[in-house]
Every structure is written in structure tokens, then in C-alpha cells.
Description:
With 137 residues, the chain is mainly alpha-helical. The protein has one domain. The protein contains six helices and two strands. Helix 1 packs across helix 5, helix 3 runs antiparallel to helix 4 and helix 4 packs across helix 5. The model has no long low-confidence stretch (mean pLDDT 85).
Amino acid sequence: MRIELRERREPDAETIGFALILVALPTLAIWLLGFGQGLPGSRVPDWFGVPCVLCGGTRSLAYLLSGDVGAAFAMNPLVAAGALAGAGWAVYAGAAVLFSLRRVRVVLEGLFELRVAMVVAGLILLANWLYLWAMGI
Length: 137
């Protein structure tokens, strides 16, 4: 695996992602914090008796938006970490788009590295699911 800096090509992930984030984040914040609608419940625990890997994700995002990072990670560590990583990526994407910077790309070299990445991602999902199950979320 290696990291490269590549020249900008339009449309690229940074441009599209930054535009989507400019729309999605305010919409999510207004929905979660502004309307007082309450949070939707998941039916997966009712149907199967165990939580899904994203159970508690909406509550986790609501805690992050209100500034309670500890509660967000307690509710669903995968969603909280993903949201923070997404926020960091949004800052990078915004800077890359606004200042026409070269794009950072992670390049997997070969099928073995792809398989390792998939196994690691699967283990992270499994660990998050087991945590949610153990905590009764």
C-alpha cells in the first residue's frame, strides 16, 4: 500500500463529496437538533433479537452534534469514529477543492492487500457489532 499525490481531475471524489457534505450536514443538524422529531427506532433487534452493526448510530450522531463525544462513542463507536473521520475528510476535501490542491490517494498494490483491507474492515464491523450486543444497544 502506498499513498500518492495526484493531479486534480474533474469531477473527483473531493469535489463531489464536498458538495454533498455542504448539503447533508446542515440538513442532518436541523433534523436532529432543530425539529425535535425524536429519533427513529430500528426494527432489527425486534425482528432478530440482536442489534445491527449500525444500531444507535443516529443517537451517536446526535451526541456528536451536541458536543458529547464520550456518549457518542458509547452509543456506537463505529458511527462516531466514522463521523469524525468524515469530518476530517470534509476539511481536507474543502481545502483541496477551494485551493486546487493535488489529491491524496491510497493505492492498494495487488489482490493480497485488497484482501487484507477487506478482512480488517470485516473485523472492525464484527467488533462493533459484538460491542453493541454486549452493551444491549
